[in-house]
Every structure is written in structure tokens, then in C-alpha cells.
Write a structure and sequence with these properties.
alpha+beta, 5-stranded antiparallel beta sheet, 17% helix, globular, disordered N terminus
């Protein structure tokens, strides 16, 4: 019987006293025999696949359980009554939690108490984290020895149901100056089998009889990076890669005399590779056959290869690496290093991306799932803000960096960090680990129910249920039906979409010269299915920044301009899109509305003056080890081109003038200008706006202060004022003082 540690324990005859509670020992006692807090597919007698508890009657008589209770709280032992249950002598009963609402079983581990009406604890168990469809069970009902086991609800826990402990290595994953011999140990009565090529070990693998020599394999030929059929028409491809740096992979299992296996133990050893120690390292290890075999997710596949090698008769078969979805996800081990091993976890991986799927070094999506590790989150919060359920490995600095420039805007953005990736021991690439938009992302970022989230990508439902596409169609159908009257119906339309989010999204892509998107390409948006309470539960569509790497590979010359910064992204037709932005249906329709035009122009200049200002971009580039000269000095030059294009697009008649805002005490309050909160330097902020539209400034008091008023180009005591832009510019002074009344 397991008792929580640190509890005062005193044995008095046949009664165990635990912190004031009595645990009775009788001949006819009921025992907790098995617990499953992470049931996914084990069907119980009630037809459910719910979590469950199995009880065993160790007595000689059948027993009813009317006077017994289950609880996960020692201070509240009678949470769930077992009235109505019975259990035969020397038999079992399964308590399904399908309808239990009093408490739940925690898959990550907790304590359970079985007690009687008098408050006597009859049995208790504390279990560790469990993977999907695993149980924590007694090895023998006459002993208090527990282990992780396969689920056997209502049946005896024989030895074959218990999972063996993974082998233990004499050296942890990480960096070593010299080669060494690795020793392995396992439970008594088991044999260790291991591999050094990333494959999953079994009884056909090498049998461990002596220490394994671990050394630097970098000079050896690449095994996986030079695989031929990772690209279409590979028959005449001689694009072999010179030997790359490598780490030494060891995978091992313990197997007993009955053929029962432990989980796989995986480790990555970097021998003489100190140059990588300053990097964040990801070592991905997956069975080579699942990656590169006939049905592997990384290759063209048997059907395509047979077609290619046998005359190419008939239609060209689809290649494996172009296929997507859960069906094409495989299990892998991830080891995450920051100078030393931070976490090792079993995860799922898929091939990620569109155009890059046909490259030799493909990108991956990474998924934490219960079925692989017992957890739907990674064991480390990669981005130091919230749990990570999924992430992607994506190339291009722009995909990682540009999100940081607009992370405070009304669009979704993703966190990222640079990583170095090894696949099955071979250096694969330096790239970026980036968050992935998913239903859980929106739950944790915006506080909405993940099961109520609809995600649209490229005019298809990325996440949701049948019928969700109709919610997306409603927006375009509304515009089509009201195109002639959209000016009058604009307010109603804004109940369907977050117009600030739409404007922020297009302002961002226009400024960044993203020439690889439109309404149905590289375009993602989301909403909740059923509206409710709260800002993000309003059922409006909102936009997501996604796939911005065109800024790195696009060339201005392609579009008739001397350089990328000079391209007019309002009127230029992108290389891979049918029409330019100002001919896109959504944008061109709402552009007819004066309120939209005003909001767009003011927002664009808000972002030019803040998000995309040279000072802001330079500071953020420096955080990533870059400087303002990045990408042919794009950010030094872009405003000089795009601001006049904005004036041309919206037929502005006014002039561009300076706004100067001063605050007498930065500790006293904040100033909001249109859609931005100003960041003052020496209590002064300056920007530029067209005289076509007035600007709106708002004074926000901080605790202990009060707003006195505005001076300068306008005199007012109102906190919110609208100010006309004038030739020669305007100056605004915000005055705060101590609030002596508080």
C-alpha cells in the first residue's frame, strides 16, 4: 500500500494511523488494483473508452460497496459514492469515469483514496504520469508493488501486462570531447537489444553483450541525406552531399523471456562537436523505414518509383512527401539541447510546407500527443510563454523575425527561435522552430474553447467540423450580394469580420512586399463557431500572419523595379497570383467605403511610424544578431517608396506632415494615437500623417495621476480628441499631474 511521503505513520495492531486517518486491514478487504487516467481506445463494459479504476475483492465473500467512497482529496474523502457496485470474492469490478463528475483522474499523476463512511482510508495509491492506454497496476494482489502496465480492466494483472523499464545508459545525451564506451543496464531477467542507425530496436537487432563504442561519425558517408528518391525524377540525380557533421545515435529496448518489450531509450552523443554547444539543438530520430522506406513519408514512394523505373507508363502517381494529414504522421524522438539536454520526448512528425516538400532537406511539423508520450504538450515551453502543442521547422529568417514587428497588432503572430537540426544523427539544417496555428493555439492565446475554433487556410477548412466552410462562404456571399450597397451596409458587414484585423493584415503584407499571397493563397483566418461572451468569442473572422518568406527570395527586377523596396504592392500582380491586391474581391469591394479608406490610411501610417520605423526594426534585428542593412537595406528604403504608393492608391490630395507629441511625465500616463500606443524617447514622439484625415489621440492615466489637458496646436481638457492635420505639422503636449485626491 502506497502512502504519501512525509505523512506521520504509526502502526497500532491491525490499524495504520495516517495523519489522523485510519487505514483498516481486514481479511475481507477491497483493494485498488488498477488505475487508468488516460484511456483513449480501451473499451469498457459500458461501451465507453473512459478513464477507470479497477477494484479487487481480496476476501472470501462477495461484497457490496454501498458504504465505500472514492476521492482524490484526503480532506474530502467522500467525493464519489460506490453505492450500487458489488464485487465477487477474489474478483474485480471496474468503475468507469464516463459519468463521474465529482472528480477526474489526472493522467499526469496524483493520489486516489478508497474510504468508508467512518472516514477510514481502506486503500490508497499514487500514480505517475501515464501515456495513452496505459494503467498503473499491482503486480500481485498480495503485494504492494505497482508498475505501469497495459490496460486490463476487470481482469487479472499477470506479469505479461507490465511494461518493462527502459534500459539505462552510463552516459547521458550531450557533448563529449572524445570517443567512449557506452554501458547499458536493464531489469534482471531481460535482454537489451540496440541500434545505432536510428531504427527501432527489436529482437532482430544487435544484442547488447559488451559496451558500445561511441565515436564521431562525421567523416563517414551520409546515410540519409544522400537518399535518392526524396525528389521527383530522381533517376538521374547525382546531387550527393559531402559528408556532414554527425552525432552518434543509440536506441535500445529491454525484452524479457516472454517477449515483452520496454519503451525505446534514445540518446544522441556529440563527439568533439563543441561548435554546436552554443546553438539550440534539436535531434530528431525516427525509424528509417517510416521516413525513407517504400511507404516512408519523406520519399517519392514505391508506386511512384515503380512508375519512374518502368517506362513511366500512364498517369504519374502522387509522391508520398506531398501527402498530408494525420495518416502521414510518424512517431519520432525529439531531444532538445541548450548547452545540455533539456528534454527528450516521443512526438509525431509530418512533412511540412508546400514548395519545400520537393527539396532534399524537407521541413517538419512537430506534434506532442498523448499516444506518444502521455502528454498533449511538449515537456518544455519552447517559447517561454505558454504550453506548446505543435510547432514547425521552417526555413527563412523572415518567417521567424517579421512576426515580432507586428506582435501587438490585431492579427495572429507566431513566436520563433533559431535551431540546428540533426535527423537520425546527420546534420540537416540551421533553421527556425516556429509556433503552429492550431485550435489549442487560439485557446491559449485568446482564451477561447479550442473545440469551438474554426481555422481557414487557402479557402479550405484547416481545423473545424463539417459545415464550417459555410461560415467562411457567408462573408464573400454577403459582399457579393451587397456589393452595390456596401457603403450603406458596411457597419453590418463589420459585425462579420474584425475590420481592424483585416486592415492590419493587408498593411503588413503590403509594407513587407509579400508577393506570395492573396485572398486564397497563403492566407489564414479564424473565428469561433458559436459566439459567446468575451472579445474573441464574438464570431468575427480575424486574420493571421503566415508565410512571409517572399521578402527574402523575391526580386524587384521580376516586377520591373530596380529593387524589392521599390515595388508597388498595391498594383503589381504577384508572380504566383492571378491579380494584384487592388483587384482582389474583398479589398476592392470594401475600399469603396469612406470609413474603410480612412481607417486603412491612418492604420498604414500608424504602422509606418511605429512597427516599421527604422529605429524599431533596427532594435529588433539586433536582438536576432542582424542589423538594419538586412535584405539589401529593405527597411531603410521601404517607406520612401510605399508611402507615396499609398497616397496614389487612395487618391490622397493632402500633404504629408509631421506630428510631434510631448508628454510631461512618462510615468504618469500613456498616449494612444489612432491604433498605437506611443513609445516616447525623452518624452517626445514624432511621426508623419497625411492632411486628408484627422488623427485621434487619447490620454490614458496611470494609477496615482490625472490628466490635466492638451496644449500646443489644440487646447482641450478632453482625454480623447480628434485633431486635423495641417500644413507645417502639428504639436501636441499631454499634461499629467499627481492626483492628490487619492
Amino acid at each position: 500500500m502506497k502512502i504519501r511521503k512525509l505523512l506521520p505513520v504509526l502502526l497500532l495492531g491491525s490499524v495504520l494511523v495516517v495523519a489522523g486517518y485510519h487505514i483498516s486491514f481486514t481479511n475481507d478487504k477491497i483493494l485498488i488494483n488498477e488505475v487508468c487516467g488516460n484511456n483513449k481506445q480501451i473499451e469498457l463494459d459500458d461501451g465507453s473508452c473512459s478513464d477507470y479504476i479497477e477494484l479487487y475483492n481480496a476476501g472470501k465473500r462477495d461484497s457490496t460497496l454501498d458504504s465505500l467512497y472514492l476521492s482524490d482529496d484526503m480532506e474530502d474523502l467522500q467525493k464519489y459514492s460506490l453505492a450500487g457496485y458489488s464485487v465477487p470474492a477474489k474478483g474485480y469490478v471496474t468503475i468507469s469515469f464516463a459519468d463521474v463528475t465529482d472528480f477526474a483522474l489526472n493522467k499526469n499523476g496524483e493520489s486516489l483514496f478508497l474510504s468508508d463512511k467512518q472516514g477510514n482510508i481502506l486503500d490508497t495509491v499514487t500514480w505517475p504520469a501515464m501515456m495513452a492506454d496505459e494503467a498503473y497496476a499491482r503486480m500481485n494482489v498480495s503485494e504492494d508493488v505497482w508498475k505501469i502496465a497495459t490496460c486490463t480492466p476487470g481482469e487479472e494483472n499477470d506479469r505479461g501486462t507490465f511494461l518493462l523499464e527502459k534500459p539505462v545508459y552510463s552516459a547521458a545525451s550531450g557533448w563529449y570531447n572524445e570517443a567512449f564506451y557506452l554501458e547499458m543496464t536493464a531489469e534482471e531477467g531481460t535482454t537489451i537489444y540496440y541500434t545505432v542507425d536510428g531504427s527501432i530496436p527489436d529482437m532482430e537487432s544487435a544484442c547488447y553483450t559488451e559496451p558500445v563504442y561511441v565515436y564521431d561519425k562525421s567523416a563517414e558517408p551520409n546515410v540519409y541525406l544522400n537518399t535518392k528518391n526524396v525528389k521527383a525524377n530522381w533517376l538521374n540525380d547525382d546531387d550527393n552531399v559531402e559528408p556532414v557533421d554527425k552525432c552518434f545515435i543509440v536506441r535500445a529496448v529491454a525484452v524479457d523471456e516472454n517477449g515483452n518489450s520496454s519503451e525505446v531509450m534514445t540518446a544522441s552523443y556529440f563527439i568533439g562537436k563543441e561548435q554546436y554547444k552554443e546553438n539550440t539543438i534539436i535531434s530528431l530520430v525516427a525509424d528509417p523505414d517510416a521516413l525513407f522506406g517504400e511507404n516512408g513519408i519523406y520519399v517519392t514512394g514505391k508506386e511512384y518509383d515503380d512508375w519512374l523505373l518502368n517506362g513511366q507508363v500512364g498517369d504519374e502517381p502522387a509522391v508520398n512527401y506531398e501527402k498530408s494529414g494525420r495518416e502521414y504522421e510518424i512517431e519520432a524522438s525529439i531531444e532538445y539541447f541548450q548547452e545540455e539536454l533539456v528534454v527528450q520526448q516521443e512526438i509525431g512528425i509530418r512533412i511540412q510546407g508546400n514548395s519545400t516538400r520537393g527539396a532534399r532537406r524537407k521541413r517538419f511539423s512537430l506534434f506532442a500527443r498523448d499516444e506518444y508520450s502521455g502528454s498533449s504538450t511538449f515537456d518544455i515551453d519552447f517559447f517561454n510563454e505558454k504550453p506548446t502543442h505543435s510547432a514547425v521547422l521552417r526555413s527563412y529568417f523572415s518567417n521567424a523575425f517579421l512576426n515580432t514587428l507586428v506582435e501587438d497588432r490585431a492579427i495572429g503572430t507566431l513566436k520563433a527561435r533559431p535551431v540546428t537540426v540533426f535527423l537520425n544523427g546527420e546534420f540537416w539544417y540551421d533553421t527556425y522552430l516556429i509556433e503552429k496555428y492550431s485550435q489549442r493555439y487560439f485557446e491559449e492565446t485568446y482564451g477561447v474553447d479550442k473545440d469551438n475554433v474554426v481555422i481557414i487556410k487557402d479557402q479550405e477548412v484547416e481545423d473545424g467540423i463539417e459545415g464550417d466552410f459555410g461560415l467562411y462562404q457567408e462573408v464573400f456571399m454577403y459582399l457579393a450580394d451587397h456589393e452595390a450597397t456596401i457603403v450603406e451596409d458596411y457597419a453590418e458587414f463589420c459585425e462579420k469580420v474584425d475590420m481592424q484585423s483585416f486592415i492590419d493584415y493587408y498593411c503588413t503584407n503590403i509594407y513587407l512586399c509579400n508577393l506570395d499571397y492573396n485572398d486564397n493563397k497563403n492566407c489564414m483566418l479564424w473565428r469561433v463557431r458559436e459566439p459567446g461572451n468575451g472579445e474573441y468569442n464574438d464570431g468575427k473572422w480575424r486574420w493571421l500572419l503566415y508565410d512571409t518568406d517572399a521578402i527574402e527570395w523575391s526580386k524587384g527586377e521580376t516586377y520591373g523595379y530596380s529593387e524589392l523596396a521599390a515595388v508597388d504592392t498595391f498594383s503589381v500582380k504577384p508572380q504566383f497570383c492571378e491579380r494584384p491586391l487592388n483587384e482582389q474581391f474583398f479589398y476592392s469591394t470594401v475600399k469603396k467605403v469612406p470609413a474603410f479608406r480612412k481607417q486603412f490610411v491612418l492604420t498604414f501610417m500608424d504602422m509606418v511610424n511605429t512597427c516599421f520605423s527604422v529605429d524599431n526594426v533596427a532594435a529588433k534585428l539586433e536582438e536576432w544578431g542582424e542589423n538594419i542593412s538586412w535584405n539589401n537595406e529593405f527597411f531603410l528604403k521601404r517607406a520612401d517608396y510605399i508611402v507615396p504608393y499609398l497616397a496614389k492608391e487612395f487618391e490622397l490630395q493632402g500633404t504629408l506632415e509631421e506630428v510631434s507629441v510631448h508628454i510631461n511625465n512618462q510615468n504618469a500616463g500613456e498616449i494612444q494615437l489612432n491604433t498605437v500606443t506611443l513609445d516616447f524617447i525623452d518624452e517626445t514622439w514624432t511621426g508623419e500623417y497625411f492632411t486628408d484625415y484627422p488623427i485621434t489621440v487619447t490620454a490614458v492615466e496611470k494609477p496615482g495621476y490625472k490628466f490635466v489637458g492638451w496644449t500646443g496646436s489644440i487646447e482641450s481638457t478632453e482625454k480623447v480628441i480628434e485633431v486635423d492635420m495641417k500644413e507645417g505639422g502639428i504639436e501636441l503636449n499631454a499634461v499629467f499631474e499627481k492626483d492628490e485626491s487619492r
